[in-house]
Amino acid sequence: MNLETLFEKIKNTRLVAASKYVDYKIIKAFYYKGITEFGENKVQALKDKKEALKDENLNIKWHFIGNLQSNKINALIKQKPILWQSCNGLKIAKAVNERLSYTLETLLEINVANEQSKSGIKPLKAVEEYLQIQEECKNLKLQGVMSMGAHSNEQRKIIESFEKTYRIYEELQKYGANICSMGMSNDFELAIKCGSNMIRLGSILFNA
């Protein structure tokens, strides 16, 4: 799929380029193709790529989309991403909140497929902990939710996982949620049909 076709498919959806496997030169090239938001899984990689591009005068908006280890909190805060997509519960939220000196926009990550290989809070706890974080972590500005689709060859199971995320998102809209981040290279079209308004694309984008 070429970029023009891809952009047409996602024209009403916010695109975050998951740049985990590409270097800063590729990021720069794609910035000039019209992509301004990039997501990194590791704090050190975010730091290195941001540093490499600092003299380029590019208005890149960095997201952190990976599992945040407690010993990397200070390092992440220093990078000032525009969105921390992978807050997986109250414990890590409190740890980040107490060290922040600015407001960090944040998504609550939900493990809707209940898979051990995935990070994220259990769906039944999502609304309760979202509201707890909102109440107790004033330096975090919750904007919505993030999830990954079920790891399955059955399209029905993937759709079910996205629909479950979207139902939680709908419930949280009255508390200010406006981002439903779901969908990656292998399932973004399903995610968009299920209500996603932000997708995280890696291989399909950089191989286009």
Task: State the CATH superfamily name.
Answer: Alanine racemase
* Shape assignment: globular
Task: Bin the helical content.
Answer: 25-40%
Largest sheet: 8 strands, parallel
Oligomer description:
single chain
Alpha-carbon Rg, integer: 16 Å
Averaged pLDDT, please? Answer: 95
Could you give the count of β-strands? 8
Name the CATH class. Alpha Beta
Bin the strand percentage.
15-25%
Secondary-structure element sequence?
Answer: HEHEHEHEHEHEHEHEH
Low-confidence stretches: none
What is the domain tally?
A: 1
What is the architecture at the second tier of CATH?
A: Alpha-Beta Barrel
Structural class: alpha/beta
Major sheet strand order: 7-6-5-4-3-2-1-8
Structure notes:
The protein has 208 residues and is an alpha/beta fold. The protein has a single domain (3-206), classed as TIM Barrel (Alpha-Beta Barrel), CATH 3.20.20. It is built from nine helices and eight strands. The chain has helices spanning 3-9, 24-31, 43-52, 73-79, 90-97, 123-136, 155-172, 188-193, 203-206; strands spanning 14-18, 37-40, 61-64, 83-87, 104-110, 140-147, 179-182, 198-201. The protein has an eight-stranded parallel sheet with strand order 7-6-5-4-3-2-1-8. The chain is globular, with a radius of gyration of 16 Å.
Characteristics:
single chain; 208 residues; alpha/beta; TIM Barrel; eight-stranded parallel β-sheet; globular; pyridoxal phosphate; Ala_racemase_N; PyrdxlP_homeostasis; Pyridoxal phosphate homeostasis protein; PLP-binding_barrel
